[in-house]
Design goal:
Distance between the termini: 13 Å
Structural class: mainly alpha
InterPro entries: MetI-like, MetI-like_sf
CATH class of the domain at 64-196: Mainly Alpha
Number of helices: 10
Oligomer: single chain
Membrane topology: Multi-pass membrane protein
Keywords: Cell membrane, Membrane, Transmembrane, Transmembrane helix, Transport
Order of helices and strands: HHHHHHHHHH
Domain ABC transmembrane type-1: 54-234
Radius of gyration: 22 Å
Strand content: under 5%
Family: Belongs to the binding-protein-dependent transport system permease family.
CATH topology of the domain at 64-196: MetI-like fold
């Protein structure tokens, strides 16, 4: 029943977007906003090209997310469990976190070149701080009595992490990932405009320079579907790994 509701809301959201798009197309009367139906037909005509660009963007995002999790989860737990480390690194995190990370793209390009490494590094730089702070907040939410209970049962450090800390931080990890993926997709759109042959950001900007607005809106539409696809994966993983969380 819950999956049906989610699917229905996504269908409603898609058609709401199409309706708003159609209204803008009819009211503005400009060739820069193509008709939704014509754009959809055009998208089917370049489906293979859209798929190649989509896979390139998704691969970059997934690589960045995977590396960020490997860094962010241990880092956040360390900040949450060790007060000395927290006092040492928290001021740095609070200073870096509000800075728009896309501003570091020229630096990463100079350090790592113009290829995928600089783009993935940019997204890691965006996601990892969100992960560290989310995990740290999850550790902070554990009540002291829970630690005492674990100690009273003579739980080992491994058991404390397995049965107390990990379940406590998982909801925060998924929440942080949702925020991070939205921001990283926006940043990837910007990063893929430099020295890239494949990627949705490259496709959209390339179509814009060619004044091919149907192709441009096809890319925008696919970018929305990529975000929807990634959020769907997160929802399923969260439902599997955190069944105790009520939605």
């Amino acid at each position: 029943m819950k999956k049906d509701k989610i699917a229905n809301s996504q269908v409603i959201g898609f058609f709401s977007f199409i309706i708003i798009w159609e209204i803008l197309y009819l009211s503005l009367g400009t060739h820069t906003i193509p008709a939704p139906l014509e754009t959809l037909f055009y998208s089917f005509g370049i489906l293979k090209e859209l798929l190649l660009h989509s896979l390139a963007s998704i691969a970059r995002v997934l690589a960045a997310v995977g590396i960020s999790l490997m860094i962010g989860i241990p880092g956040g737990i360390l900040l949450g469990m060790n007060q000395w480390i927290r006092r040492l690194f928290s001021p740095l995190l609070y200073f870096i976190y509000p800075i728009p990370k896309v501003a570091f793209l020229p630096v990463f390009m100079l350090l790592f070149g113009l290829g995928n490494q600089s783009k993935i590094t940019l997204m890691i730089f965006i996601i990892v701080f969100q992960m560290i702070l989310s995990v740290r907040d999850g550790v902070d939410q554990i009540q002291p009595i829970h630690h005492k209970v674990m100690k009273s049962y003579c739980a080992t450090a491994k058991q404390q992490y397995r049965y107390l800390i990990l379940p406590a931080i998982l909801p925060q990890v998924f929440s942080g990932l949702r925020i991070s993926i939205g921001i990283s997709l926006a940043s990837l759109f910007f990063a893929e405009n430099y020295a890239t042959a494949y990627g949705i950001g490259y496709l959209i900007m390339s179509a814009w320079t060619k004044m091919n607005y149907e192709e441009m809106f096809s890319g925008i539409l696919v970018l929305g579907f990529i975000g929807l696809f990634l959020f769907q994966i997160l929802d399923r993983l969260e439902a599997h790994f955190t069944p105790w969380v009520q939605k």
